[in-house]
Amino acid sequence: MTEANEAFVLHEDPFSGNCYKIRLTAALVGVPLERRFYDITKGETRTPEFLSKVNANGRIPVLEMGDRFLPESGAACWYLAHGSALIPTDRFEQADMLRWMFFEQYNHEPNVATLRFWLGKLGAENLSDQQTAQLSAKRAAGDAALRLMDEHLATRDWFVGNGITLADIVLYAYTHVCEPGGFQLADYPHIQRWIARVAAVPGYVPMD
Amino acid sequence: MTEANEAFVLHEDPFSGNCYKIRLTAALVGVPLERRFYDITKGETRTPEFLSKVNANGRIPVLEMGDRFLPESGAACWYLAHGSALIPTDRFEQADMLRWMFFEQYNHEPNVATLRFWLGKLGAENLSDQQTAQLSAKRAAGDAALRLMDEHLATRDWFVGNGITLADIVLYAYTHVCEPGGFQLADYPHIQRWIARVAAVPGYVPMD
Questions:
Q1: 3-state secondary structure at position A35
Q2: Is A68 on the interface with B (CB under 8 A)?
Q3: Which residues lie below 8 Å from residue A98, measured CB to CB, with a gap of 6+?
Q4: Is a pLDDT exceeding 90 seen at residue A41?
Q5: Which residue of B has its CA nearest to A80?
Q6: What is the spatial distance between Cα A44 and Cα A106, in angstroms, rounded to a whole number?
Q7: Distance in angstroms (rounded) separating the CA atoms of residues A60 and A44
Q8: Is the pLDDT of residue A206 over 70?
Q9: Closest A-chain CA to B130
Q10: Which of B3, B77, B98, B138 should we substitute to test contact with A (largest number of A Cβ atoms within 10 Å)?
Q11: What is the rounded CA–CA span in Å between residue B64 and residue B34?
Q12: What is the percent of chain A with per-residue pLDDT over 70, rounded to a whole number?
């Protein structure tokens, strides 16, 4: 899957589902990762050194290999999964997998992950007025994303094709820990069964 | 590039930069698209027929081919550009291209495109209190995205490698029309030169 002796460092925060996506992908393709930890609530990804060397966007995860740095979780998963069954070779299925990965970053993560961070980590009492004003819109948009997933899974075991792909991995990351954000998995029975399916894949590793 | 006789229908709104990305990609690879128009401000992508047949997510663009429908602009661009020079074959460059495409959907579009829609189409006087409360945060985040692009382009002609790729196409779509959203291209000289570079590519088509 990866070039011989290629070594990877994952710059990450263990609380982050975006970082976990990369760990899960690496585990499923059998690639070891060295882990380097940052606490985003302490600004550790906004230091001058981080911005100049690791990621000018001030965000994690970043996958480091040799002298190169690859930000964006979906891109890092794509790199690691190269040549594996986690990326379908069929032209439509490959594009359809990316469709779910873009959906995750646009419709799912800004709502499901953000509410988990705001309510499950920062705490409702510590939110700014502007954050509090966005809670109901993010709740509705997050539930809409989960409902769309649940309907899709009503007739399918996996998001694309007949096995696990990167689409499942990236959607799994924040979905399976959505409840601290106030979402109820009991509302989504097909998602619940799919979560069990993902966790049963050989090589699976849990979130920390 | 595409299979013989494969016919495409683009479900789109000509005002949308996400739709334009697909038109520009198709033009650069020489694939004709039939266009079908919707006005999102009139709810035309939320009708029961649209939701059941075209996209359960109620959004455009959607690329239709045969009996299949592909939502998400980045996924449609990926499908159309298959096998062309718009997608690098080098493993790192391909992942790095996707990195910019995810960056566009996460950091750029929700700020640069949304302010264009809110201020340039709906009008500041027609925004809800909740939208008005988000203006300054979206202005700052949009300028941060443009600044990151400008710094990246200070030493490069294209986002990835030595020629135009999907990364340039998707970032170009909303960047070159950012000014109705209140952003100033004069603040970003490297972006300005890159915009001229994109518009000079053989086969280029402008936004409607």
A1: strand
A2: yes
A3: B72, B74, B75, B78, B98
A4: no
A5: B95
A6: 25
A7: 10
A8: yes
A9: A133
A10: B98
A11: 10
A12: 98
Reported pTM: 0.96
- Cβ distance A99 to B70 less than 8 Å, yes or no, reads yes
Check CB contact under 8 Å for B133 and A133.
Answer: yes
Domains, in order of start, for chain B: 8-81 (3.40.30.10), 91-199 (1.20.1050.10)
ipTM of the predicted structure?
0.96
Q: Is A114 on the interface with B (CB under 8 A)?
A: no
- Distance from the Cα of B86 to chain A's closest Cα (Å) equals 15
| CB distance A187 to A146 below 8 Å | yes
Q: Report the residue of chain A nearest B61, measured CA to CA.
A: A99
- Answer whether B56 touches A (CB < 8 Å): yes
Q: Which of A165, A116, A164 is nearest to A139 (CA)?
A: A116
In which band, very low, low, confident or very high, does the pLDDT at B41 lie, cut at 50, 70 and 90?
confident
pLDDT digits (tens, 9 = 90+) for B147-187: 999 999 999 999 999 999 999 999 999 999 999 999 999 99
State which H helix or E strand residue B8 sits in. Answer: strand B8-12
Pairwise CB contact (< 8 Å): A78 & B94: yes
